[in-house]
Amino acid sequence: MISREVAWRAFAAEYNASTLEVKGEGERAPSYVITPLGAMINRLFVVGVLTDIENTGTEEEPFWKARITDPTGTFFISAGQYQPEAAIALARIRPPEFIAVVGKSRTYSPEEGTLYVSIRPEKVTVVDEKIRDYWILETCKSTLKRISAAEEARQMESPSVESLMKLGFSRVLSEGVVRSVAHYQTVDFEKYRAVVIDALKYLLPEYQTEIPEIPVESPEEIDEEENIDNEEKVLAIIDRLDKKGKGAPWDEIVEEAKKEGIEKNELEEITNSLLDKGLIYEPILGKMKRI
Predict the structure, then answer these.
(1) Which one, 13, 42, 152, 162, has least CB within 10 Å?
(2) In a 10 Å sphere around its CB, with 0-12 CB exposed, 13-18 middle and 19+ buried, how is residue 124 labelled?
(3) What percent of the chain has pLDDT over 70?
(4) Under a CB-based contact definition with an 8 Å cutoff, are residues 133 and 202 in contact?
(5) Is it the case that residue 215 has pLDDT exceeding 50?
(6) What contacts 36, CB < 8 A, 6 or more positions away?
(7) Domain coordinates of the chain in residue numbers?
(8) 36 cis-preceded (ω within 30 degrees of 0)
(9) For 228-247, what is each residue's pLDDT tens digit?
């Protein structure tokens, strides 16, 4: 009996940076996408915002292509007649919407040395923001573990699965890391640590910009009204700058907010509040969009 492959948690920034595919030998042998950090992905579990969906087939034989964003980038998914459950689910969802996807890794190589990755979904489910936040936390943990394993391997004269397992890493991660070290000449681990930090900024108060001190003489009622007023101003700015429906650029939001008397530190606090309330989301890094 063939056991089902583990569904990895990985951010889009790591998955999309993959340039190595290991094809299985035999008719039913699985193939794997090996990420720079050593995730050996045959199946993937992702949660994010469905931002775009299109039927590129026909009404009789639909073929759905969609984009899902996480805090680090975009996953590309596609489903047709051979993924009926996922295709039916996608047909019923209208973006933007939080969704969870379990699916198989897919690759496309138009030429030697070029590899594009996507996901062929097995199951698509609408979820809430709490599920998305939990996925981000768990994916941060998994990413940090892969960073640790990959760094250990690159310090070894001859990295092996056995030597990594002796350090406490699982066999499947150890196998992926050994393959990644052999393929990827260099990996910027600081970049992936920054990816984790950026993802955590969506969730944890200690990663947010400190709130400027409020003068003691300001009445609490006036401060609350001012906060609500400024939130409305920022929402209006985002609407105004989102000209193509793909989000308002952060730099332009900062400039427009300054004209309204809102400095950058205060703006960051306002956008964090709007994100927490579910009024806006970040379809890609550096852009804000109304929900």
Answers:
(1) 162
(2) buried
(3) 87
(4) yes
(5) no
(6) 14, 17, 18, 150, 180, 184, 187, 192
(7) 7-199, 211-290
(8) no
(9) 688 888 999 999 999 888 88
Q: Which pLDDT score is estimated for 285?
A: 67
33, burial (CB in 10 Å: exposed 0-12, middle 13-18, buried 19+): buried
pLDDT digits (tens, 9 = 90+) for 7-37: 899 999 999 999 999 887 766 778 899 999 9
Stretch (H or E) spanning 76: strand 73-79
Hunting for tokens 């969730």 — which residue is that?
203
Query: In terms of pTM, does the model score above 0.85?
Result: no
Give CA separation, 181 vs 6, 49, 121, 173, 200, in Å. 21, 32, 29, 12, 27
Architecture (CATH level 2) of domain 7-199: Beta Barrel (2.40)
CATH number of 211-290: 1.10.10.10
